[in-house]
Amino acid sequence: MMTDRSGIGLTSQRARNRLVDLLREMGISSEEVLELISSTPRHLFVDEALASRAYENNALPIGFGQTISQPYVVAAMTQVLRETGPLDRVLEIGGGCGYQSAVLARIASQVYTVERIAALANRLRSRLHELRIANVRVRHGDGRLGWASQAPFDAVLVAAAAPTMPKALLEQLSIGGRAVMPIGRQGDQMLTLFRRTEDGFEEQPLQRVSFVPLLDNVD
Asked: H-helix or E-strand containing 110?
């Protein structure tokens, strides 16, 4: 069960509905994904001072130079994974504040999320516990390496950009598995869908995006 903070006017269902209407206009067609965005309390994943802006379609700071992704980006990445195959075991790279983790947890059997910043990983664990989300496991580590001991995964979602998809993440996909990740450098990034086949990997460019970089250091 998810609980609301009290006294925050713009966390109302009306504000959420306005956001969903905007996302639908922007091309999110899955009613299931739109319902997930509407009913997942994004204001609980940002600082209370920013909670009144939680249902705007904007990235917001969460500390440590990181952001919570725009609702549109969360919806788009979730939609492409939902529509292209099963979501039994999902690996998320860049857990951040946990908003994307919470959305995935509602449509996947098990989510494994890797966060490189220890303070964010600890905060993420606490928030998931508070919200009684029991099917997400959190690991503090280098996201480029994935979580090999829990592979293979049906899907991998990477919430940070790099010039290429890390080989380790592709290799942790099951046959038929998919990965979605922004590929490119700052100012020139393409959200890209990867599929693992019996013969190798296929790539499909989806849309232009802007993400923080996938870093190799662990804090």
From this structure: strand 110-115
Assign residue 168 the CATH number of its domain: 3.40.50.150
Structural domain for 191, as ranges: 71-209
CA distance linking residue 161 with residue 219, whole number of Å: 18
Catalytic positions, written as ranges? 69
Cβ burial 118-143 (10 Å sphere, 16+ → b, else e)? eebbebbbebbeebebeebebbbbbb
- Residue at 181: amino acid letter: M
Residue 175 lies in a domain: yes
Q: Walk along the chain (219 residues) and give the pLDDT tens digit of each residue.
A: 344 444 344 457 889 999 999 999 999 999 999 999 999 999 999 988 898 899 999 999 999 888 899 999 999 999 999 999 999 999 999 999 999 999 999 999 999 999 999 999 999 999 999 999 999 999 999 999 999 999 999 999 999 999 999 999 999 999 999 999 999 998 899 999 999 999 999 999 999 998 888 987 777
- Number of domain units in the chain: 1
**H/E stretch holding 147:** none
Q: How far apart are CA 64 and CA 121, in angstroms?
A: 12
Q: Is residue 15 part of a domain?
A: no
